[in-house]
Every structure is written in C-alpha cells, then in structure tokens.
Amino acid sequence: MFALIRRGVALRASTCLPVPVPILRGQISQLHNHAEAVAEMPEVPPITGPPPTEEPFWRKIPWWSNVSESDFLSYRWGIANTIQPHKLRNFLGSVLPDEVPDDQHEGKMQTRDDLISDVFKGISHASMSTRITPYIMSRIDWNDPRHDPLFRQFIPLRSRMLPDHPELTMDSLGERKDSPVPGLVHRYPDKALFLPVSVCPTYCMFCTRSYAIGGDTSTVHKESFKPTRRRWEKCFSYIEGQPGLHDIVVSGGDSYYLEPDQLHEIGERLISMPNIRRFRFASKGLAVAPGRFLDDGDGWFAALVDISNAAKRAGKSVALHTHINHPNEISWITELASQRLLKEGVTVRNQTVLLRGVNDDVETMSTLIRKLADNNISPYYVYQCDMVESIEHLRTPLQTILDLESRIRGTIAGFAMPQFVVDLPQGGGKRLACSHLSYDRETGVSRYMAPALTRGNKENKVYEYFDPIDCLPVRPAEPCD
C-alpha cells in the first residue's frame, strides 16, 4: 500500500474520489456548444513534487532498530510502544551517549546519569504527565538532546524550570467560568469548544488545559472529561438550544482518542443540527503520530473523510486542526499523510505555539510556515504561550511575537501568513498580538480589550498578559532548585 502511495499511484481506498477529467471535458463541451468535439484531448498528468526521502529514521533508536515500516506506521503499534515514565528511564539509558552537551554551561558536558536524574526531577514538578509517541522520540537528536527543539517541548528538565509568574492561575484562560455544562466552553457569540475526551497521544508540557488533561501528577489533580454518553448528551443539548451557535471545535484532549464510531457519532450529530454550519476536529495526531493517516488497518482516517464528505453534501464544512511547532516534526510520513488528506478533500489548518528556544527566531518560524504551506496545511495561528504552571522557561515576552510577525510579513504570500495572537488570560479570547491597548516593556504588562465578548460581565473588560519575569529589564528570575 505504502509503496503505491510513494510512487504516486492513486490510493485504493473506498473513499477515494474519481479522477475528474471526464467532468472537465463535459464542461469544455458545454462552453463550446458549436465547437468540434475534444475527445482526443490528452490527459494531464498529476503535478507532483520530488518524492520525500524515505529514511527509516526510527531505526536509529536501539529499541526499534528492526521495526518494519508497516509496523512503525501502524497506530496500534505506536500506542503499544508509547513512552511513559515507567519506560522512560530504560529508554533514555538506551539512546543517550555517556555525555551530552550542557545548554546552560557553554563548552561543558553533562553525564547521562545526571541528565536522566534531571528529567525525573522535572517530571515530579511538572503539571502535565509525560507521554510521548515513538514518532516524536525518533525525531529527537539524542546526541544533543538539551538543544533539541522536540526534547524541549515534551521532556521536562528540573534545571530549566523557573518560578511561576505570580499572576499565573491553573485555568489560565478561565475556561471553567465559561462552561455552561461540563466539557463545553462557550465564550464567543457564535462558537463553542466541545471537550469529549481528556487524553492525548502525546502530552505537551505547555498545555493550556493542564488543569484537566492527562493523568494526575504530583502537583495537579486533574478535572478530567471522560467520554460518557450522559455528559456528551448534555453538551449536545446545550448546543442545539443555542440558535446563535454556528461553529464547534471538537477538541479535548485530542480527537485522535475518539474511536471511529465516536467520531462518526459526533460528526453526524453536529451535521444534523440546523444551527451548526461548520466544525473542526482538533488533533495533534499529524504532528506526533502521522502514520495513522496512512494506516488502512485503522478506521480513524476513513471516519474523518466520511464526516467531511457528509458535511459537504449538507452544505457545511469540516476541518482538521493540528498543532505542529517546529519543522523537525515534519517528516516524509507527514508529507504523505498531508497528500492523502489533500486528495480526500479534507481541509487542514495548523495552530503553532510560540516557545522559547524552540521556534522563537525568524528562520525557524519562517521555515515552519513554508513547510506547512508546501504540504497544503494552512498556517492558521501562532499563539503567544499561555501562562501555564511550570513552563515559565518556555514563554517569551510579547515583544518576540510582535517582532516575528513584523519581520515575516511580506516574505510569504498573505494567504499563507498565520495570525499572531494572544489568547487572553481570564477568558478574553484570541486577539491579534499587535492590537494591544498598551505594552510596557519595563513591567512586561500588555493590556487588551475584546469588544465582541459581553457574556459573563466581560463588557468593557481590560485583560492583561504578563511577560516572563526573567525577561524583564530588572528582577531576573533564578532557576528553580
């Protein structure tokens, strides 16, 4: 199957669309009613770029040195081999050299045992569980992990952590205050967020929903959203009873953790609601386990395509929203998955989070935007990192996102340019980063208003975002002990 995809042969799935050449010919004949037939018109070959490099990069990992391509692309194999803390110590022992470069002391090295100790101290202080797919683990440079942008996103180090900002709250965006029923956030006039699950294939340290997602940690008792029919029904009833709601985001957690029949159930229910015109499934799957889109032994992709097509027949739209933060997350597997989504007519948009030491420079962010666009993934948002517990070392000052937008805008087509936004604390919603009322670099305080939001005493409310303290001109923060 995968060899056929790589050679550009049409996918032999039941959901594949027919080649549209006969339709095109019919249209030409109608336009030229008195012209001669064009039956001899040659078929135009599909436009394809250079074939992706098909390196079996996962075989660099000793544990997976003999794993076949079909196994690695299998979602079931990926779930069975996901790395969690009880496996992590042995895994790190197998991939790390005796010493690795220390990013905090230039020219110095850190022993493997010291790094592993640092990781587990970080896990004990993190607000998110550690859970990482084989795909991501295979994309990390284990000879220099402390400088690796993927390691920095998913594996906590205690030595990096800074004291939390004093204005931080566990539910930084105030989602619980905007929840009329458990697992549903209704903040905007015409859009709501439905949270059917609270599990993800890989957990990000900087998750804005760290109050609810994943298992309990030593620092956070989670308010989980279990996929029960009773809770879902309350959410559906609320949505149906709000004529002003037209747009639903199905997230969590991650929509990847919905079974195919659950994906069908949610999609069909939303399509049947007269007030809902569009909805999106949010999933980090394309970033952390893209092989699932190529795995015909798994029904998730087929269910997504079925829902997308059913929505189109109903005059509505469905999209997949994914979350890729760095170009290194994109491999030849991602490229093939993106091509398959394109062929099946599924709209894909990406939401990136700006992270210090990961993608906070012009070259990295520009490369990411272009790679996304080249793979027909719309670069939709770049978010200022939320004020989340234990990740102060990953946040940037607001000035960074302002500078990035200023320098990148005009270097790429406008339709491929993402919106650079701040999701305001206390439920102010998304605002363009550059739309602040004021920004004091000395105090690090930026102020915004959200005129469209009037629910819950938000009318004329001023929202404040706070830069990391260690980035201020005074009062630098010290690393945690």
From TrEMBL:
Protein name: L-lysine 2,3-aminomutase
Keyword S-adenosyl-L-methionine: yes
Domain of life: Eukaryota
Keywords: 4Fe-4S, Iron, Iron-sulfur, Metal-binding, Pyridoxal phosphate, S-adenosyl-L-methionine
Keyword Iron belongs to the record: yes
Gene Ontology MF: a single term: catalytic activity
Swiss-Prot/TrEMBL cofactor(s): pyridoxal 5'-phosphate
Phylogenetic classification of the source organism: Eukaryota, Fungi, Dikarya, Ascomycota, Pezizomycotina
